[in-house]
Structures are given as structure tokens and as C-alpha cells.
Design brief:
This protein is mainly alpha-helical and about 450 residues long. The protein contains 18 helices and no strands. Keywords: Cell membrane, Membrane, Transmembrane, Transmembrane helix.
Length: about 450
Amino acid sequence: MTPPDTAARLAPADLPSPVSLWQAFRFWLKLGLISFGGPAGQIAIMHQELVEKRRWLSERRFLHALNYCMLLPGPEAQQLATYIGWLMHRTAGGIIAGALFVLPSLLLLILLSWLYVAFGEVPLVAGLFYGIKPAVTAIVLQAAHRIGQRALRHRLLWMIAAASFIAIFVLRLPFPLIVAAAALAGHVGGRLAPAAFHVAGGHAAAGQSFGAALIDDNTPPPPHARFCWHRLGIVLAAGALLWLLPMALLTLAYGWPHALPQMGWFFSKAALLTFGGAYAVLPYVYQGAVEHFGWLTATQMIDGLALGETTPGPLIMVVAFVGFVGGYGQALFGPEALFAAGAVAAGVVTWFTFLPSFLFILAGGPLVEATHGDIKFTAPLTAITAAVVGVILNLALFFGYHVLWPRGFDGDLDWPSLLIALLAAVALLRFRRNVIHVIAGCAVLGLALKTLL
């Protein structure tokens, strides 16, 4: 809440001018082009631009929306953009904000994926990726460390993280089963030991004001943001139609066993499992895309994550790379249309991955706007976040194995890759360097080592 002395100094002239849909469109397009740095960096950019500079909404309203998005599966930064766009300019504003957060990254990844599959064996490209792969291993390890610091604040949560690591690393249980077991453990633990599962989110309550905002602390929700059963029914029906219609068309055109319907179905499930961010769902994507369907290889999966780290937009956009490589490699439309097959597959995967994110906001937003109290992590979600730490640690070991022992444990340790991975880990964990800078430095170092050795 704005302090009384501050409020007294705020004249009507201090209020920002109303924002048109066209002005909002230009901002969301700009955000989609510059949203590097993962969810933390993307949320920081939105806070700086929308709360501090433009004052489209207040600090408290921004964090209120963010807390809701952090409870959802899916990319919280993209969902936050969708929420703010919807709050300001109705459904059209939400769709524009969410879509522009994704589209630049999708188009860029389609281009980079094509360059990768077409020219990946060129010595220059191969040398760059030789340095990037160890950096990706360090980046995933940093993700496990970062999430673990925030989530593992009680020994019971440490036990859940350890159990999830054993379940996926030793027992090779499927990721959805691990999530379900963690949720059940959180539900039971929340009743028996509530103090252990009462973990606050990573964003504190608002405590400062940057001046009067268009949507301020006490601004009532606009008419479209007020809960209505009729409107909720329309949103859910539209969402069901937007899922069923493309899925039915793909199935009728190609048959259910075809790769395109299977990609749509698989990534629809993946979209509902992204608690804890993209790193949490990557093991599930790996199990399905690499081991079960064979759309790409383990090495290609690592390279795709590297490309995802270097492009704007949410990291979960790596699924577009998975779709492109799968469509291209399987020549879905014949050998004369490899690029078209990859691009269509990438589009299909992106559609089914992000559709739930829009529905969560458009359907749940009015319920959130009904109260401005803080939204807390429930005990099951706290347990899921703890389990995610063990899953991501498994992912780091998986990447490390394929990067450091490319021919398996029977082959020699790749010492140059180990050196690059250690340097990247020190840069990230000790000196907290920017991910893009680390990847660029490791790419140059890898090219140099590949040229000299």
C-alpha cells in the first residue's frame, strides 16, 4: 500500500496516461525480442518496465499476479505477461502479450534448428557446440543448486528430493509418477507436519511504491476481470475446442500413430508437468522424445537445450527444437520437404505446450482478482518443488555422462570438456556470471580446443 505521505504528494497529473492496445502490442513485441536470461531475468525486465518506469500497475498488484503464476505448471514469466495483458486489455490483450512472448523465440529456434541439422557437422559449428555442451551441464547443475536453496528448507523436503533422485536415477520411474508421489507426500505431510511444508515463495510481499499506477493497490478489478460462471464456461469451452480441433484434424489427416498427433498428445501432457520450470520437465521430455519415440538423440537433446539458453523467450521453448528435429529427421512430408516438416512439427509442439498456459490465466484470472491477499504455495506444491531438485540433479548427471564420456564409461574421459564444465560452473556458481556470457565464452574456448587438439 502506498504510504499516506506519498499518496498526499501524488496529484492526478502524476497518473500515467491510459495505454492503448496498440501501445501495449509494441511493448509486448519488444519484450519478446529482449527477454533473455531465463524467468528471473524476464520477470525483472517486466518489473522494471511495467512497475517502475511505465507504472501500468503497482508493485503489490504485480507480485499478486506473479504469486499466482508461480503456482501454475508452465513458464511463469510468459503467464505473467499474459495475466498483465489480460488485466489491462481483456482477452485480446492477454493473447497478444502471451503470444508475442513466444513467437520471436519460436521463429528464431526454427531457423537455428534448421542450421543445426543442416550444418551441424561443419567443423566451425561442431567446435562451437563442443564448448557449449559442457557449459549446459554446468547450467543445469546451477539450476538444481538455485532451486534447492529456495525449496529445501526442512529435512523432510531434503528426503523428498533424495527419494525423487533415486526414483528417476536408479529405479527409472516415469516423471509423472514421481510428481504424483511427491504431491501425495506433500498432502499427507502438510497435515502431519505443517511447519515443514510451510515454505514461502521466492518473492516477498510488496513494500515500496514507484508512484500512482494505472492499476494501483486499491483499483477495483475491471468488469472483464470479475468472476462470472458464464464467462468461465465460455473460456473452458473455447480451450477444449482449441485443443480438440487441431488434434482431430491431425489424427484424421495422418492417423493416430503418426508423429504429429503423438507430438501433440505428448506435449499436452508435458505442459501440465512443468512445476518448477523447464528444467523439471526436461527429464520427462527426454524419456519420451529420446527413449520412447526416438524423435532425436541424447546428444541432440543437449544441443537443443544450449540453443534454448541462447534465445529469448521461455526456456521451455526447447520443445520447438525437439519438434523440428523430430519432424525433419523423420521426413514427415517426404525428402523434398524436410524444412517444412520440421517447421510444422515445431509449430504443433509449441501450440499444444502453451495452450494450457493461456487457459490457466484466462480462466483463473478472475478468481485471483477476487482477492488481493497473498497466494501461498500449498503443501503438495512445496513437495513437488522439492522433488524437482532431485530430478534436475539427475538431469545434470545425465548430461555430464554424455558430455564427459561420449563413448561411454568404457571410453576415455574427455578432459577438455571436463575443464570447460568446471570453468563454467565456477563462473556461474562462484562469480554469478550471465548465462549467455558463459555460453559464448565456452563456445569460443571449445572451438579453440577443437582446432588445437
